[in-house]
Amino acid sequence: MATPHRSSSAAPAARASLDAESGEWLRALRGSRAERQAAIERLHALLLRIARNEVNRRGARLSVTGPELDDLAHQAADDALLAITAKIDDFRGESRFTTWAYKFVILEVSAKIGRHFWRDPGVRLEAEDWERLPDRLGFDPAKESEWRDLLAALRRAVEEELTERQRRIFVALVLTGVPLDALAIEMESNRNAIYKTLFDARRKLRAVLTANGYLNDDISRRP
Amino acid sequence: MNGWGELDRFLHTDPRDVGCEEAMAMLHVYVELVAQDAGAEQRYPGIAAHLRACGPCSDDYEGLLAAICDPSDGGDEGPRIGPLS
Ligand SMILES: [Zn+2]
Questions:
Q1: B85/chain A closest Cα distance in angstroms
Q2: Residues A56-78: pLDDT tens digits?
Q3: For residue A77, what are the domain limits?
Q4: Residue A163 belongs to some domain of the structure
Q5: Is residue A125 a part of any domain in this protein?
Q6: Ligand 1 mean position to B30 CA, how many Å?
Q7: Do A154 and B63 count as a contact with CB atoms less than 8 A apart?
Q8: Which residue, A1, A3, A129, A196, shows the most beta carbons closer than 10 Å to its own?
Q9: What is the SS3 string spanning A69-117?
């Protein structure tokens, strides 16, 4: 993650003009009091529908149910609306207005689900559990002799090569199964910083395992 | 996928990976290119690399793609979902 890919060739071509629908949204949201109010109501209804679809899409994986999910969708739509109206001058017409606006509500749903993780009384953090790792990675128990050394080497590398912060994050995400967004809240950090630390840890672990002959340094094996 | 492949895949890092912040900043642009099958990966290889490796960002990406492809949205583009990889 050394160089952010932000070369000018990758920048979206500036739009000569907004599409008509996006232009209409901007005009109404900056219009008279009545126009603005009507546009805000219409936008809120759209955001709420997107939020509901999104919590339902993710709901199966969560321990959140019906009314609570709907409450979460309402909160996400309300907060997204506030953010959108506050940041409307940041919209540069690189996408349709609604795509830009929907991003706010999707990210709000995401953030609220991350916070919800710690409120769930059913959440139990297992201790750092190396015993479950083979199963989670899909190693065949019948072939333990083939992978035992690899996992022992991985564990040694985690304990000896990673910094304290890298180790804490690796253990929470990989061994304990804490969602990344929930861990970011717990550590008073953010998704980007946690990801970056995990990225560095992954790279370091892979280098160690490759140097010791446990993994191939074969770029063609990339997914 | 067996354990070796899974571990290898997890530990593999792509130097083009832009990280969460950059990927989320351009997500609205990226997702429209995907929906229009307009070369999102070629134009933003660093975002594509990130979405392959980051669960939460990939989840947000899937959600936003689903939102703009929602047929009840009434947009004039119609739902078109491009290949993801
Ligand atoms: Zn990410």
A1: 10
A2: 998 777 777 788 889 999 999 99
A3: 20-117
A4: yes
A5: no
A6: 14
A7: no
A8: A1
A9: HHHHHHHHHHHHHHHHHHCHHHCCCCCCHHHHHHHHHHHHHHHHHHHHH
